Amino acid sequence: MLSIQLQRAGYQVIEAESGPEALQVCRRYEPDIVLSDWIMPGMTGPELCREFRGLSREGYGYFILLTSKTEASDIAYGLEAGADDFLTKPISGAELRARLRAGDRILRFEEKLRASNAQLQKTLDRLNLAQEAMDRDLREARKLQQGLVRERSGRFQHFELSLLLRPAGHIGGDLVGFFPINQDRAGIFSIDVSGHGVTAALLTARLAAHLSGSTEQNVALRAAQAGTEAVSPLALAQFFNTMLLEETQTDTYFTMVYADLDFHSGELRGVQAGHPHPLVQRRTGEIEPVGDGGMPIGVLARPRFDEFRLRLNPGDRLLIASDGITEATDPDGNLLGDEGVMNIARGHRGLSGHNFLDAMSFCVSQFTHGERRDDISAVLIEHREWGDRDADPLRSGPDRRGNLPP
């Protein structure tokens, strides 16, 4: 009788005489709805329900137990076995149809949910592929950006220059470097472009091209009858400020310290444009900040940049660090600051060159507990006391493109 009612209601019906036979039917046909007696040959309805829930199938199956049991403990037992609904005997046709319609609604909802999840998974797979491709591109971009700093150190007569550049992510906005002006002078720069993404990296690449070792490309150099001349540090900052305001349509700006170093006299002329204060450490160990700050480049049409002069005597050194170092924070939000960098310099006074820069980078990492949110970069200028052979500029100085001899 129940089978006839179901067929008249438009359902395709498959009957089974026992629990084991019903389980075989479920394995073979994966029915959408199962109506099972509580008591039947071979196994009980709850036992069949447990086995049914353990089957591997594509969609959800709605399970209704037919029973004359009305005790709360029996209902709980059936629900724990995995039943979705119950029909109490004797079965009413109206109640049967209502229970089946409820099952149909749940199955349709489950099917839509499954389709949505499948579409979501496809979208997620596409996004993962796109992310993997982007990561590959960014890794290559990082290699290219690291290549902008072709030489991490250079020796000019009695001076040694060492560079540190470590982006926070794949690509960053920091740039450090140096280039020879002539046999007796070099230009040295430390730049920090706002932001850390592609926009910052593109501007960094452009600035690197403008400060290359080639006289034809380097905007800090100009050809003269007597050889190569350099524009003043202040004029260079003003040039970059005009370029950024007139040629770019973004809110990007950058900070900079640029210095013109004379190897014979130790005289250094520089400009500070919103960059952290350079720190000069004398041979005695005394440390003092240099400059008054100045405005970042690309913010105002007529900014005030700070010019400074100093002399580096034998045993002295100058550290120019980006705000990724000076503004590093510990887990409590405390800034490392200029004083923290000074303490690092005092504590590692016996180290020089890259040994000192690596030690400073390690100290910053310890201070932040390894959480680095910004690029870190630095330039270390040291007035060393080598012998005459080491001081020969033809042996130790870079060529016109900034390459060191073997």
Could you characterize what this model shows?
The protein has helices at 2-8, 19-29, 45-53, 72-81, 93-147, 198-210, 233-247, 323-326, 337-347, 353-368, 388-391, 393-396, and strands spanning 33-37, 62-67, 85-88, 153-156, 159-166, 174-180, 185-193, 221-224, 227-230, 254-262, 267-273, 279-281, 287-289, 306-311, 317-321, 376-383. It is an alpha+beta fold and 406 residues long. It folds into 2 domains: 2-117, 3-Layer(aba) Sandwich (Rossmann fold), CATH 3.40.50; 148-396, Phosphatase 2c, domain 1 (4-Layer Sandwich). The strands form 4 sheets. It has a 6-stranded antiparallel β-sheet with strand order 4-5-16-15-12-13. Strand 6 and strand 7 (185-193) form a beta hairpin. The model is unreliable at 387-406 (pLDDT under 50).
Number of helices: 12
Nearest-integer average pLDDT: 86
Shape: elongated
> SSE order, as H and E?
HHEHEHEHEEEEHEEHEEEEEEHHHEHH
- Sheet with the most strands, sense and barrel status: 6 strands, antiparallel
Corresponding CATH architecture of the largest domain: 4-Layer Sandwich
Instruction: Please tell me the total number of domains.
Output: 2
Structural class: alpha+beta
The CATH superfamily of the largest domain turns out to be PPM-type phosphatase domain
GO molecular function, one term: phosphatase activity
Pfam families: Response_reg, SpoIIE
Organism: Paracoccus zhejiangensis
Protein name: Fused response regulator/phosphatase
